[in-house]
């Protein structure tokens, strides 16, 4: 019944290619986090602004991002927008889909972090002559990032893992795409995907450990 013969040497010889793909995976994850964080900060401001239209737009985005599969969001970026004549490359579609997802989750992380910050912080800034936006930017937002730092780390790990969905839209330069291409040429499915899984695991652990060390150093007081 079990007559599969392992050929690890063939897979290990392709390790440099897999590591190149891992760099692309990290690049997409980092860019998607930066874009998602910027959008999430604006959504936080929208929800605090009191403008019902801005608030409704932010809530709609967040609800869609958090309650639909990430795969669908990437599909819509690649195939859905193509129906309207907007054609994104697999790289751009993957980046847009993950950034869309990140923005929704990070916005909720920031909203939760804001609830942990007393309103007196903002009022203290206003009493010093700051505008509402200045007090938010200089007093509230740094504390918000501090409270949300570890949840942001979890989202970063999730973004790294989400990049593997890129193979469904033709992404071929990231870790999952290169693994799939090597597998298609050699049919050594277990070996290539096992090594890719280990690489994903190591990246995730490095990000998590690095974030904990950074948090311990930056937020000691």
Identify the notable features of this structure and list them briefly.
mainly alpha; single chain; 79% helix; 221 residues; 0% strand
Commentary on this structure:
- By secondary structure, the chain is mainly α.
- It contains ten helices and no strands.
- It has helices at residues 8-13, 15-49, 52-67, 70-80, 90-115, 119-127, 132-147, 149-162, 175-186, 189-218.
- Helix 2 (15-49) packs across helix 5, helix 2 (15-49) packs across helix 8 and helix 4 (70-80) packs across helix 5.
- The longest helix has 35 residues, at 15-49.
- It is elongated.
- The relative contact order is 0.15.
Would you kindly provide a brief summary of this structure?
With 221 residues, this protein is an all-alpha fold.
Question: Rg to the nearest angstrom?
Answer: 21 Å
Count of individual beta strands = 0
The low-confidence parts are none
Largest sheet: none
Q: Averaging pLDDT over every residue, what do you get?
A: 89
Count of helical regions: 10
**Assembly type:** single chain
N-to-C series of helices and strands: HHHHHHHHHH
Structural class: mainly alpha
End-to-end separation: 61 Å
Query: What is the helix fraction of residues, given as a range?
Result: over 70%
Strand content: under 5%
Morphology: elongated
């Amino acid at each position: 019944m079990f007559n599969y013969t392992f050929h690890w040497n063939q897979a290990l010889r392709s390790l440099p290619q897999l590591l190149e793909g891992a760099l692309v995976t990290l690049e997409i994850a980092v860019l998607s986090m930066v874009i998602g964080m910027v959008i999430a900060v604006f959504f936080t401001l929208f929800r605090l602004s009191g403008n019902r239209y801005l608030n409704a737009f932010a809530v709609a985005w967040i609800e869609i991002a958090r309650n639909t599969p990430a795969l669908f969001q990437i599909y819509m970026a690649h195939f859905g927008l193509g129906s309207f004549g907007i054609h994104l490359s697999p790289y751009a579609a993957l980046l847009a889909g993950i950034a869309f997802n990140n923005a929704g989750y990070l916005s909720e992380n920031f909203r939760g972090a804001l609830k942990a910050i007393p309103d007196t912080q903002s009022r203290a800034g206003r009493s010093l002559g700051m505008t509402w936006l200045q007090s938010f930017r200089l007093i509230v937002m740094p504390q918000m990032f501090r409270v949300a730092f570890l949840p942001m780390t979890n989202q970063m790990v999730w973004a790294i893992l989400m990049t593997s969905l890129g193979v469904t839209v033709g992404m071929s330069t990231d870790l999952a795409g290169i693994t799939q291409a090597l597998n298609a040429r050699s049919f050594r499915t277990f070996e290539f995907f096992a090594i890719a899984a280990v690489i994903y695991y190591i990246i995730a652990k490095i990000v998590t450990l690095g974030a904990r060390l950074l948090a311990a150093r930056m937020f000691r007081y």
